[in-house]
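ok here's the first one, seq then struct tokens
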Amino acid sequence: MAKVFIELLEILEGKPRFIDTRFDLSDNNAGRNMFNLEHVEGAIYWDLEDDLSDMFSNNGRHPMISKEKMTNLVQHAGLNLDDLIVIYDQGAAPFALRAYFLLEWAGFTNVYVSRSGFEELKSKLPVSKIKPVFTRTTTIPQWNSSKLLTMDEVRQVVAEVTEGQLIDARSNVRFKGESEPIDPIAGHIPTAINFDWEQLKRDGKFLEQKELKGKLTNLAPIDKPVIAYCGSGVTAAPLYGCLKEAGYENVQLYVGSYSDWIRENDVEK
């Protein structure tokens, strides 16, 4: 069973590289400003839109980055494939898990998301205002492309040519098409089921593994491929991570998500 989340006590026992991914979807500068004010000592900052998305692409609202951009990102950060890496955000947010997915896609094998947000981390770890500089590495990612689904591959799932259960991480009213505050077309990808990602957290933390198993393992057979998506590919990342933590053996992510799907495809309500 995959271990996605790491507890504060476990962090204190190791010497990880830290990545700060705090962000605010309503204020694009908020995360970087928080990092500049204070961050876990030694942490680097990865911005959801500048670093973890390709905002010049039209494949959804937070499109997948290229292999070239990801390679440059990890090399510039001075990361090696076997480094112990702990990613954090403000707690129970989707941003650390977006970075987690990208690092897993790039073949990093020792990556975890802090179950504690920054405020709890700083109560036990030293903080700093200094932006660290690391020697650039020549790391070549070992791509796990099977974790990432394209629109065409999702079409194959919808047509039942390829096995898989699509799971929509948005709210139920958006899934049903009763309300759509962001995208121009309301509804969901055909054949998908719904699990609102907000159910995965409580009191600023993602749920413990036992609770996640109780909530998620009835969605599909545990050995069947499951594909997380949402509106823009951001809040699908927590669902992706929690499905892995709950014991699903083959978890994939459609980063383009609903905002990409509606460009060329029909929807259900």
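and now the second one, same deal
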Amino acid sequence: MTQDESRRVQERYARRDAAADARRYALTDPYALAAWQERQRAIVRLLAGRDLAALSVLEVGCGSGGNLQDLLRLGVDPARVQGIELLETRAFHARAVLPAACRIQSTDALHADLPDASQDLVLLFTVFSSILSPGAQQALAARVWRWLRPGGAVLWHDFTVNNPRNPDVRGVPWRACASCFPRAVCRRAA
């Protein structure tokens, strides 16, 4: 991501976090619970038949570690889990809730220290809707593609339409998602 877009993402999240009602994302909220359950069912379907303990997994934009916790519960080996989080406070929380074997970097994903072809699975959950620059989206997608091993997969979960109550995000239509990874075979989970 460009330095300017990285700074803008940080500013948008700081503004949103200061105003946000954390309960809206808690699993005690019926909408949040239903969305989480739907996402879990899709992940289980997509990963069916894979030896989860053998996968090297990276989440870009890992937040406070919730998605990585979900994968650990499904059987992913903590020693093979990595997260990248732009916001240091969220990376701190992820380190606090995840096993010590999980490696969490607080950095811009374009500056992350990861070797090419090192990941079997890369998660991008509500990342691209937070990056409003198409150029920064393309740069991040190219970086993620380089991190994937042959036969690896990207799990992309994001908004496809704009949220009229949140000007800090922009929906990413299916065709835009697919255009970020032009050499990939793209499939919808649902």
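notes on #2: The helical segments are 3-19, 30-47, 66-74, 88-97, 134-147, 174-180. The beta strands are 57-60, 81-85, 103-106, 119-125, 148-157.
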